[in-house]
Known about the structure:
By secondary structure, this protein is mostly helical. Among the domains are: 138-182 and 204-304, no CATH class; 317-369, no CATH class. Helix content is 47%, strand content 3%. The chain has helices spanning 14-34, 59-67, 70-114, 150-157, 173-180, 205-208, 212-229, 234-250, 253-267, 280-287, 298-304, 323-326, 334-337, 363-369, and strands spanning 183-188, 197-201. The chain has a two-stranded antiparallel ribbon with strand order 1-2. The longest helix has 45 residues, at 70-114. The radius of gyration is 58 Å and the shape is elongated.
Amino acid sequence: MPPKKNAVPVSSGRPARGAKTVAAKVISKATSSGRRQAPPSTPPPPSPSQPGTPHTIDAEALAEAINSHPQLNGIETRFQNLESTMDDNQRELRRTIQDTFAQFMDRFDSFERQHPTPVTPTNPGTNQGNPPNPFGAPVDVLSRWPWVDQKLVEDVANGQFDIHNLPKLHREEEPRTTNSKKTTEGIHIPADGGIPQIMTGRTKMSTAFPNVSIFMSAWMIYVSIRSSFANDRGPGLTHWTERLVQYSLKFEWSSCVNYAIEYFTKHQNASPDAWFSIDPEIVIGHFIASKRIMSSGPSNSATTGSFQRPQSPKKPLNGEVCQNWNRPLLGCTYRPRHEGDKCPRRHVCSTCLKSDHKAHECPPKQKSSN
């Protein structure tokens, strides 16, 4: 093993302490001389405890800081573009709304001119059954029946219609005007010497409606008017109408007319469901003693209200023999009675059908008589 080296003894005298002090000074000086000067920082904002200290902003320093960061410039540009786009959209939206509103007002004005406000009945309670108009547009109800007097329409809508005025609802003018005339029953002369008065009566319903088809032509107008102002009555009125047609196929039409008059007078303002009942009391009163119709089919009774035997087809006039021409004294009277027109019947002998002689001059007839 090699011998150990002797350790150098560390001196503990003052020269060593002085060397450390000198070295520390040298290091401190070297580090302090090589350190850069920090740029002047922005002074802190004045504290609330110093209200008198003015707050200043260095605009040049702020502009230099913004220019040194391009991202900040791009954000500002995007914000400006976004603001410009929003302004354009708002202006376009306002313009679109104004144009749409103007078009709507123009269409509404034109529709209002084409559809004037209708004349409604005097009693507003009768329209409670009508469904509401979803668009609020006026409906001219009276234009559906221009031939019906407005007063009659109001009476029907208000439940004050006189069944004897039913002939006035005819669509055709001739039956309407004919049945609107009242019949004269007599003259009333007052005992005190007053002005005489003409007594008038109603037109008989059996005369105004000789069969069921003519009755239905006016009755269905009533059903249409009534259900237009109170649509909950439509199903009941239609059901009762079908039953009346069935009665007309089985009983005399005069009994059906009397039944219809009494039923209408009793149930005109009844509940809508009442028209689904035939009212057995009224049925018994009018049909128990009525003559039943023995018909083979509904065609005859539906048109005339009573049974009729089928008639054989008639021959045309040009195939018939003129009997007046064959008589010796009378002769054909067709030409004088029809302003000189030629007689449509054949001027031939009724016995042998020859045109050179008449029946009393027929040779075979004379031979047989001899």
